[in-house]
């Protein structure tokens, strides 16, 4: 790498959505920015690769991106004007044994009507959050910004969102609504008895109604590439294949943004870090991992319920009790016999990702942190349960367990795709309890990864918030 004679205003390490957003915000504010990425391809969790066969484009991590439309960072950058977002006819389906699938539609009223006597409860729990719109989303994704944009809506959201999913699910009387809520809450990767799991489920379901659950045409890499183009157009410099292991390796800069988790930061800055802060970072906890399978298919998934064929995202796990049992097993260090499986049919919304008439499909399940167990059979058994004949459609498969995911993206420690456990303790102390958790005690150095507020997801808010604080310093 080469620095200018007088150095850079900012160096950003890591090109995931947070690093890219932070770099773009700094560059478009007039800063001289250098972006360093360890991998040969930019994008972090937004990368898209031909993992199975030529012509089949698979998102290695993030695919369905409601937060890219809802996030105040991405709205400010107008990413919707930079790339095409394709919406599936149905945002999410949750198949059930011997009954029609529970469908979460873009239309709140249509979704509620499909839940029969649970219509009023769905409108109350999910509909209120959806109707609160962007002011509430902004408050939740920038929780430390004062004053909050929607304080009253946040209080109403928190009245149920702070509760365990198991408690809020009692508001639903029948299996379809309870199962649909379970699938949403399972994105927290926490047992349903844990506080704040209802909040994860409520917000994700509400986003399906307010902005939809779209994919980026051509793959999530398209979004990363658009942000890189913005950075370069603003004068930013980009270097790939450059792994930073020590802050002393960086060229002179007034501020440094690190899109890394506490483990990498400890290694980079141990000699500069005050002992008390170092001890606090060492207590940071990583969450369960995932086991992910990508498929090239010679046709659509043969769902028993044809309505599921229109869904971009499919939650496979059966009833609320079954999903809760699977997530409890993972939290207790066990591998479920019937795991909760999150599946994505990206080609339902974006057929450009596969050759004509072919399809892509990916599925992952949660596993204990750092698991080395091959979950292929368990995942495919769950898919076959609701789509008999699925295996006959498989042209090729590609598996990634926790070790492979971490090798691909060092921020996915032990297969943890959320940048750290997101239970209530680390919900408020991420990575440490502080009024300004992005700022570190190392002068001019900021953390901006998913290990900072508001946590995991392709929203870019860690980078946006860290860059805003760095600009005040500059």
How would you describe this structure to a colleague?
With 474 residues, the chain is an alpha/beta fold. It has two domains: 8-46 and 219-285 and 419-473, 3-Layer(bba) Sandwich (FAD/NAD(P)-binding domain); 85-215 and 288-408, Polyamine Oxidase, Chain A, domain 2, CATH 3.90.660. Helices cover 37% and strands 16% of the residues. It is built from 18 helices and 16 strands. It has helices spanning 17-28, 66-70, 72-77, 108-114, 119-141, 151-161, 165-168, 175-185, 197-210, 221-233, 262-269, 275-282, 320-331, 346-349, 376-386, 402-408, 424-428, 461-473, and strands at 8-13, 33-36, 48-49, 58-59, 85-86, 90-96, 99-104, 215-216, 237-239, 253-258, 289-297, 311-316, 341-344, 359-367, 394-400, 445-447. The strands form four sheets. The protein has a seven-stranded mixed beta sheet, with helices on both faces. A five-stranded parallel beta sheet has the order 9-2-1-10-16, covered by helices on one side. Helix 1 packs parallel to helix 18 and helix 5 (119-141) packs across helix 9. The radius of gyration is 21 Å and the shape is globular. It starts with 7 loop residues before the first strand and ends with a helix.
CATH topology of the largest domain: Polyamine Oxidase, Chain A, domain 2
Distance between the termini: 23 Å
Q: What is the gyration radius calculated from CA atoms?
A: 21 Å
Shape: globular
Q: Look at the structure and give the mean pLDDT.
A: 96
* CATH C-level category of the largest domain: Alpha Beta
CATH architecture of the largest domain: Alpha-Beta Complex
The number of helical segments is 18
Q: Structural class per helix/strand content?
A: alpha/beta
Largest sheet: 7 strands, mixed
In total, the number of domains comes to 2
Residue windows where pLDDT falls under 50 for at least 5 positions: 1-5
Number of strands: 16
Strand order of the largest sheet: 7-6-12-13-14-11-15
Strand content: 15-25%
Helix fraction bin: 25-40%
């Amino acid at each position: 790498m080469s620095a200018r004679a007088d150095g850079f205003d900012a160096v950003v390490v890591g090109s995931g959505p947070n690093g890219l957003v932070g770099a773009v915000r700094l560059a478009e504010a007039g800063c001289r920015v250098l972006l360093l990425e360890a991998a040969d391809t930019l994008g972090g969790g937004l990368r898209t690769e031909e993992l199975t066969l030529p012509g089949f484009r698979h998102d290695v991590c993030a695919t369905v991106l409601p937060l890219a439309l809802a996030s105040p960072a991405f709205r400010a950058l107008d990413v919707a004007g930079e790339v095409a977002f394709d919406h599936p006819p149905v945002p999410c389906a949750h198949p059930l044994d011997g009954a029609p699938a529970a469908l979460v539609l873009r239309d709140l009223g249509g979704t509620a009507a499909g839940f029969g006597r649970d219509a009023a409860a769905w409108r109350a729990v999910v509909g209120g959050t959806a109707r609160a719109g962007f002011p509430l989303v902004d408050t939740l994704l920038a929780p430390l910004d004062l004053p909050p944009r929607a304080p009253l809506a946040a209080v109403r959201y928190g009245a149920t969102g702070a509760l365990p999913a198991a408690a809020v699910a009692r508001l639903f009387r029948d299996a379809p609504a309870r199962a649909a809520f379970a699938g949403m809450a399972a994105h927290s990767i926490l047992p349903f008895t844990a506080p704040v799991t209802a909040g994860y489920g409520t917000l994700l379901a509400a986003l399906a109604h307010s902005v939809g659950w779209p994919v980026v045409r051509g793959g999530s890499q398209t979004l990363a590439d658009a942000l890189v183009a913005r950075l370069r157009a603003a004068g930013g410099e980009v270097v790939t294949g450059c792994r930073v292991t020590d802050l002393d390796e960086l060229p002179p800069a007034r501020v440094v943004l690190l899109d890394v988790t506490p483990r990498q930061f400890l290694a980079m800055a141990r000699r500069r870090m005050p002992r008390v802060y170092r001890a606090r970072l060492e207590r940071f906890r990583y969450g369960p991992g995932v086991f992910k399978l990508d498929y090239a298919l010679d046709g659509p998934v043969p769902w028993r319920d044809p309505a599921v064929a229109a869904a971009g995202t499919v939650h496979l796990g059966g009833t609320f009790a079954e999903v809760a049992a699977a997530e409890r097993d993972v939290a207790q260090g066990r591998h479920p016999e019937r795991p909760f499986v999150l599946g994505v049919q990206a080609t339902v919304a974006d057929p450009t990702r596969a050759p004509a008439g072919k399809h892509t499909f990916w599925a992952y399940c949660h596993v204990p942190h750092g698991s080395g167990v091959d979950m292929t059979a368990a995942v495919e058994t769950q898919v076959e349960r609701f789509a008999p004949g699925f295996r006959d459609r498989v042209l090729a498969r590609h598996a990634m367990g926790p070790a492979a995911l971490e090798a691909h993206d060092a921020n996915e420690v032990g297969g943890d795709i959320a940048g750290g456990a997101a239970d209530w303790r680390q919900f408020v102390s991420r990575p440490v309890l502080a009024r300004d958790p992005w700022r570190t005690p190392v002068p001019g150095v900021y953390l901006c990864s998913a290990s900072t507020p508001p946590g995991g997801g392709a929203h870019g808010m860690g980078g946006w918030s860290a860059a805003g604080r760095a600009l005040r310093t500059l």
